[in-house]
Amino acid sequence: IPCSKFKSDTIMSIFIFTQPFYCGTSTTLGMSPPPPPPSSFLLQNTKLKTKPKLAELVQGETTTIKTKDGKSIEIIIPSYMSHLSDLTTPYQKRPSLQKRIIQNITSSEEKEVWDTMTVRNSKGEIPYFWDVHFSGESVAEQVFSSCHGLVQAAEHGLLQPNYNDEDLEVFQTENGKFVNVDTATDEGLKRASKLNLAKSGLADIITSSSPHPIANQIFTPNNPGRMFTILRHPVDRAVTMYYYLKTATWDPLYNPKLITMSLVDYAKSSSIENNWLTRFLVNKPGGALTKKDLILAKELLKRKCLVGLYDDMEVSLAKFDRYFGWTDGNSIDQDGKDGDENDSNDKDEETNKERRTAAKAAAPPSSSLAKTTTKTEIQKCRKKVINTGDYRHNHPNVKEGSKE
Known about the structure:
Blueprint: H1 12-15, H2 43-47, H3 54-58, E1 60-66, E2 72-78, E3 102-104, E4 111-112, H4 117-120, E5 126-130, H5 137-147, E6 151-153, E7 170-173, E8 176-179, H6 186-194, H7 197-200, E9 205-208, H8 211-217, E10 225-231, H9 234-247, H10 263-268, H11 276-282, H12 291-304, E11 305-309, H13 313-324, H14 332-335, H15 339-343, H16 346-362, H17 375-388
Parallel strand pairs: 3-7, 5-9, 5-10, 6-8, 6-9, 10-11
Antiparallel strand pairs: 1-2, 3-4, 7-8
């Protein structure tokens, strides 16, 4: 299928700097996900109103960007986007949350309550995973849970048994630990903001598809986020979306009309997404996109977002691990060394081993620290999750020039 057949995402121009332009095959990555609420995946797009208050649109940083043709264009970055740290500043890791509020999904009576004031009163950044649909986000989220034991604040919060609307809690499922919030809806974000999700220290990672509402309502100057994501070629995303929407009978966005519609016809139809990446980066859900919108999207991605690539999933997830210090407790910015250097340094590895041993001895028996695993075990776990894939995204490979 020629690239011209698709209304490819405007933000595609960003990919050109990191990899050759292609319309290549659609690989299958993902996981066997936790049972999501009916609003899994795409419904997040329709449930979140991404337009902020007018006052917040007016206030912001004015930046002049020079284009390739030598012209200068002024863009305005909303002031609340400063709640997402710039990549030029060193990452400030929060102290590990050694005590959690856990509720086991298999037994609502089994509950352990621990004090979290130490983390609530500490300063540091919270990793914010920008959920770009059909870009391996389900793989990443499974790795965060299964391989690193991280607590996530995502759309799964309503799965909590005996859902508690008044307080933030962490509950346990067979797929990991989650905070009882829903970051996929306006009401969910308002509740998370009211209950001070970022300040609570309960979430190791906050996940959402909408950077602007998250920056505006969840993160604060004292509790900022550090944004990271996985990007995929938009044509490959469109192919996967086509096959998903024509078969996902469990999803409210299931579209039976696609059953009789060819992939090429889908690419020409109004059913295909309209520049999702660009629109969510500039907070413009409707209307025509302009060159200034594209420049703003590229600038925000450049400044704010640590990017991994779908086609290099294993490498990308390993880099995220080293950057945020999930395995060894030291981020790249904290110890001043790239993770590859640490991997090749036997002395550093021995030091990290001693640190893990000490952490296990000091941690409460049921805390995540007591389950710390070695770097090799985490690498094996990562590879297993990637290879397992997501059954929802299984579909024929599509190559450029093919009939379908």
